[in-house]
Amino acid sequence: MKSISAPATKYLCANCPLQFHRQLQNHTPDEIAFLSDFRNGDLVVEAGATVLVEGATSAHLFTVLSGWGFRHKTLEDGRRQILNYVLPGDLIGLQGSLMTEMQHSVEALSPLTLCVFRRDNLPKLFQSFPSLGYDITWLASREEQMLDEILLSVGRRTALERAAYLFAFLYQRARSVGLTRDDRLVIPLRQQHVADTLGLSIVHTNKTLKKLATSGALRWIDRGCEVLDISVLMAISKWQGLPEVARPYI
Amino acid sequence: MKSISAPATKYLCANCPLQFHRQLQNHTPDEIAFLSDFRNGDLVVEAGATVLVEGATSAHLFTVLSGWGFRHKTLEDGRRQILNYVLPGDLIGLQGSLMTEMQHSVEALSPLTLCVFRRDNLPKLFQSFPSLGYDITWLASREEQMLDEILLSVGRRTALERAAYLFAFLYQRARSVGLTRDDRLVIPLRQQHVADTLGLSIVHTNKTLKKLATSGALRWIDRGCEVLDISVLMAISKWQGLPEVARPYI
DNA sequence: CGTTTCATTGATTAGTCTCAACGAAGGTGG
DNA sequence: CCACCTTCGTTGAGACTAATCAATGAAACG
């Protein structure tokens, strides 16, 4: 486990890098003023670092400003399940702020820039800006919606469909925050991550990805996966895509 | 699909049947006054009825007052995944209130009594009673936490462990709202529901349940499953149980 | 009393896991 | 700069898990 490094650039909310994404709902000046005070600075963690750890109480919650990460849980004997991925705009650690302790861990896949909030200030946010409280509920509900789809996939899709769904899903999410280039996307993960997401062994994952690659939909490259054709992935997985609606962020 | 029947008994919030459960956090008189106005009456649906349907927009959200139900999603070819079960105190349909339309369905396993709220009033709730907004976020976060565990189970536990986990999980939830009698519990479901929860075929589910029954932890009875010994189930599934904390309800 | 739903069982097939081995690439230290 | 080491991807063989097919029994339902 790599440790968390010291804060780097200091963003101001008025300069928040997230405000430029068309699919994210921007804040009113009042809200920006409040959030500038509510936030606690930002944090850069390196790839592989653990941001939040299962079983611990965290004094903070975070919004991802840039980079890729994932949430996961493990059984006592080490079997690991990746629950979901985190991308720019996502709020992480809310659970630890509401309940007593975190029930899952969060790890960085790439260098991750985080906007830091103190959990004790959360009730004040609900009091002062109910609209922001509503936004947080919205984000929690969206996370649940994504989990529902992932669970459907792991429970009921075949290995090939599951893999196709995963990359279509990640492509769509990445596109909504401007991470695609020329309709292509490079996702920084290992086959082990894919295996732990799909609930498959690493060997079978490799064979499944190989088969999927013959469709031309994706290609495995040095330390990552390049998505080439999302329409093929959507067809194979029989996935319609998530409704693309403007979403809030904090 | 059975239809929804007409309202039955009219509860007042001051007489809410949920207030007697020790694990549920009761409301202040102010909140009760607000909720009495916010709520829209109640509704009784019969076993097998569909309460909310995937793809539809619902004008309502509900709190379960009594009974069992489940949330589920299906692929276009009919493969179904049960996402989670709903028990007294659970809020359902929040997603449909925040997003445009429901992304999952909810069906009754037993007769279900529901407290009905209008979705348009939700922003007003956040404005007037931030504490209740916070509670709703808490409930959404708890749902996510349960889904995380279920996903870990479906992705990484063996069939036998998965089945044991499911019944241990449902037992613990049912106990928290007083549904157990003499440390036993009857859950009103079919093996098909178990199969669709665990991501297994009905035949293999039957064989797995047979094996699990030999441990003495449960017994399949007429139209349901009787849980006899949760400690055995927890041992087989290597599950520690969820932290039992007081939780809010609306 | 027939009809439907649900649980059960055995046989066969398909999918996935484990074990094992190897190659390529990158990083590290001498 | 090279040798070594580690990580990651790849491949094949064999074992095991779970799916499918098919048939039957038991109970509830109308």
What do these coordinates show?
2 copies of one chain form a homodimer. Chain A is α+β, with helices and mostly antiparallel strands. In chain A, 38% of the residues lie in helices and 22% in strands. The first copy, chain A, has 8 helices and 11 strands. In chain A, the strands form 3 sheets. A 4-stranded antiparallel β-sheet of chain A has the order 1-8-3-6. In chain A, strands 2-7-4-5 form a 4-stranded antiparallel β-sheet. Chain A has a 3-stranded antiparallel β-sheet with strand order 9-11-10, with helices on one face. Chains A and B meet through strand 4, strand 5, helix 2, helix 3 and helix 4 of A and strand 5, helix 2, helix 3 and helix 4 of B.
Under CATH at level 1, the class of the largest domain in chain A stands as Mainly Beta
Assembly state here?
homodimer
Going by CATH, the homologous superfamily of the largest domain in chain A would be Jelly Rolls
Give the name of the CATH architecture of the largest domain in chain A: Sandwich
Shape of chain A: globular
Structural class of chain A: alpha+beta
Q: Please tally the β strands of chain A and state the result.
A: 11
The radius of gyration over CA of chain A amounts to 18 Å
Biggest chain pair contact, residues each? A-B, 51 and 50 residues
Q: Tell me the domain tally of chain A.
A: 2
Determine the number of helices of chain A (DSSP H or I, runs of at least 4 residues): 8
